[in-house]
């Protein structure tokens, strides 16, 4: 290593000796980073160049590799692509062109390598064909499986090969991919936005009361947006308000559940599994999968409810083929277990629109089945498997549905059950 020192006194400070670093330098592989939505434009450039090679009768082709990652700019997280271009190694009479090397006025070398070529960088601009070293601006490195590697000046190629090879532009062409990058850098494409899986689920859980109040696009109205639209519009606010250790654990449980779904490819369950099957530290949701990803909170909630309902029904006493009381009878002090809770859309004539109401199926210890259309705050917080006591209620009707004897009640008042 070279050592230099400067003994000059700069305000009492002596510059200490320092060592110049030794650089392990290699020509960079042509590579660009741009928004993932720009990949098709980059691929089109490659295909256009390959079509030109085919027209010239050249067998070699450009290839490329893409590596996707995310980056946050100005508060927006986007999917980015690292696009690597592999130039073809043009071949002629057994010789492969591994690199084109240009010399700057100061004698430095600018190299363009073909594909994964490991061509050494020329130390000078000599030509192995004519044996001279002179002020030439370009040399080529070529390789032959039997004759080895040579360095040939640009003006000597025709004399060395017997003709001027076509397609050498591929060794230095960047296929105008700089234009693709420029467009990407100066255009914000909403289609490139992505969302962290955990954060998206937290926002969706906050919007839907942990999955219980999901609204699909089919059920959405002018007054009430779909859950997907609501989460997209208010994502930052929902995440800030809904983030908690409990919800983060719930989000991870949902992801773990989705990874185990058995759906066939193309089915709803199969697509959910595909979205959430990535590594946790690398997983994010693309814009085109946003609505589907948000819906998983409802699917998970329904699955959990179904599991609890099954357990409650397995533990329930045998159903009685009778009603608990005649119509218009007042019930008092009836203990029961919540066996099932479902949400249905009904038309509210006062609000002049459909509203969501909960229907609760209750089972008494002796096996009577009670159905209650919840309303207001009376059924707030009630969930499948919960024990309750009906302090007072009126029998609205008795009916047999699917061979089950059900007593429909109204005007229900509850009281806490004994611990």
Task: Briefly say what this structure is.
This protein has helices at residues 39-55, 157-161, 177-185, 197-207, 227-233, 235-242, 245-259, 268-275, 290-294, 296-315; strands spanning 3-10, 13-19, 31-35, 63-73, 76-86, 91-92, 95-103, 109-113, 138-144, 148-153, 194-196, 284-286, 330-348, 353-363, 369-373, 387-401, 404-415. It has 419 residues and is an alpha+beta fold.
Write a structural description.
This protein has 419 residues and is an alpha+beta fold. It has three domains: 91-171, no CATH class; 193-307, no CATH class; 316-415, OB fold (Dihydrolipoamide Acetyltransferase, E2P), CATH 2.40.50. The chain is 25% helix and 33% strand. It is built from ten helices and 17 strands. Strands 6, 7, 8, 9 and 10 form a five-stranded antiparallel β-sheet that branches. Helix 4 crosses helix 5 (227-233) and helix 4 (197-207) packs across helix 7. Residues 1-15 have low confidence and may be disordered.
């Amino acid at each position: 290593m070279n050592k230099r020192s400067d003994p000059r006194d700069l305000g009492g400070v002596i510059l200490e000796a320092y060592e110049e670093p030794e650089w392990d330098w290699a020509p960079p592989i042509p590579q660009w980073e741009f928004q993932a939505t720009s990949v098709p434009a980059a691929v089109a450039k490659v295909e256009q160049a390959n079509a030109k090679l085919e027209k010239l009768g050249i067998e070699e082709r450009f290839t490329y590799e893409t590596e996707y990652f995310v980056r946050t700019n100005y508060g927006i997280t986007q999917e980015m692509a690292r696009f690597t271009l592999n130039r073809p190694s043009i071949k002629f009479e057994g010789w492969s062109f591994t690199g084109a090397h240009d010399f700057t006025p100061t004698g430095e070398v600018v190299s363009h390598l073909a594909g994964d070529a490991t061509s050494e960088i020329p130390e000078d601009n000599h030509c192995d064909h004519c044996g001279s070293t002179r002020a030439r601006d370009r040399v080529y490195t070529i390789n032959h499986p039997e004759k080895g590697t040579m360095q040939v000046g640009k003006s000597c190629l025709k004399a060395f090969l017997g003709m001027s090879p076509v397609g050498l532009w591929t060794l230095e062409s960047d296929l105008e991919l700089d234009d693709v990058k420029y467009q990407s850098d100066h255009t914000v494409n909403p289609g490139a936005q992505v969302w962290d899986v955990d954060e998206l689920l937290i926002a969706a859980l906050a919007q839907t009361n942990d999955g219980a109040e999901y609204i699909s696009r089919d059920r959405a109205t002018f007054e009430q947006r779909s859950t997907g639209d609501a989460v997209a519009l208010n994502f930052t606010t929902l995440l800030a308000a809904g983030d908690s250790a409990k919800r983060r654990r719930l989000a991870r449980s949902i992801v773990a559940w989705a990874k185990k779904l058995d759906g066939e490819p193309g089915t709803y369950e199969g697509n959910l599994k595909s979205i959430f099957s990535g590594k946790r530290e690398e997983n994010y949701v693309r814009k085109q999968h946003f609505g589907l990803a948000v819906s998983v909170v409802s699917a998970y909630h329904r699955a959990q409810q179904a599991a609890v309902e099954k357990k409650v029904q397995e533990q329930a006493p045998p159903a009685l083929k009778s009603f608990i009381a005649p119509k218009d009878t007042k019930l008092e002090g009836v203990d029961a277990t919540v066996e099932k809770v479902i949400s249905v859309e009904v038309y509210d004539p006062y609000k002049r629109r459909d509203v969501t109401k909960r229907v609760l199926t209750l089972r008494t210890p002796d096996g009577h089945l009670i159905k209650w259309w919840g309303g207001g705050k009376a059924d707030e917080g009630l969930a499948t498997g919960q024990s309750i006591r009906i302090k007072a209620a009126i029998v609205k009707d008795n009916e047999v549905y699917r061979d089950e004897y059900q007593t429909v009640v109204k005007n229900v008042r509850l009281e806490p059950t004994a611990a």
